C-alpha cells in the first residue's frame, strides 16, 4: 500500500500552502502546531471520538478557539477526516496507475538519466536493499498478550513500532482475521497486524475471505457486494436481460458519452489569489540579452534599434558612394 500512502502524502502537501495562508507562517513554521494537528487529522487508526478530543486539546493549547477557518473545517470534519471513513469501503478510489507511479517515484531517487549499465545495476541493488529495509521496519510488531483459543479463534494484542501509544487487537482463525485498525474494511487489503497474527497462528495460506474478488484475475460479479450486505438483484444475468427486453415508451434521445480520463482524478484544487501571486513572482522573467532589462527583449531593445539604424545608414551611404563612382566613370568615358 505504499502507492496509497504516497497519494495521501501528495494530497497533504497540496493543502499546505492553503493552511499557511489561513494561519500564517509563524504558527505553521515557528511552532509545533502543524505536527501536532496532523497526528490527529491524517491518522486512519483512531476513532472519531479520539480525533475530536485530540483536535480540541491542540486548539486549546494554541488558543485558536475563535479562529473562523478552523471552526469551519471542524464543522465539516465528517467530509474529509479519515477517522470518519474507517467503517466505509474506500478501495474503489485506488487507481490502476497508482502502483506504477509509486514505483517510478521510488526508483527515480536512485537512478539518473545517462547512467551506464554497470551504474544502473549497482544503483538497482541499492534500491532493492532500501526497499527491504522499509518492509522489515513495517513488519516490526510486538505481541503483548495472546488470549486462549475459543472455538478455533484466538485474540492477539500487539503494538506497532511505527504507531506509538496504540494497541491493536486481532482476532484470527484458520479461515478469517479481523483487526481493530479496520484497514481491510477501508482499503480491501489485510493489514500488517493481520499477517503477523496469521503467521503466529501458523496459517501458511492467506484465507480466501481476506482476498476480495476485485483483486483477482477471474473477478466475479456480485460476490464483493454480498460481503457488505448490498443487494445484488441487478447483478445476475436474468434480471439484466429482463430489464433490457422491456423497452421504455416514448421518444428516446441518445447523447454521446462523456469523455473521461484514464489517469488521475481530473480534479484540480482551486488556488487563491495569494498563491497565484506567489507563483507569479517565482516565475522566471525574460531578460534582454543586450541590456539585461526585463521590460523588453533583444528584438525591441533600444540599443539594438540604434545599431540597426547605424547599419541602415552605412548601407545607404555605401550605395550612394558606389553610384557616384559609377557616374564619374561614365562622365570620364564620354569626355574621352
TrEMBL record:
<keyword id="KW-0863">Zinc-finger</keyword>
<dbReference type="InterPro" id="IPR006564">
    <property type="entry name" value="Znf_PMZ"/>
</dbReference>
<dbReference type="GO" id="GO:0008270">
    <property type="term" value="F:zinc ion binding"/>
</dbReference>
<keyword id="KW-0862">Zinc</keyword>
<dbReference type="InterPro" id="IPR007527">
    <property type="entry name" value="Znf_SWIM"/>
</dbReference>
<protein>
    <recommendedName>
        <fullName>SWIM-type domain-containing protein</fullName>
    </recommendedName>
</protein>
<dbReference type="Pfam" id="PF04434">
    <property type="entry name" value="SWIM"/>
</dbReference>
<keyword id="KW-0479">Metal-binding</keyword>
<feature type="domain" description="SWIM-type">
    <location>
        <begin position="168"/>
        <end position="202"/>
    </location>
</feature>
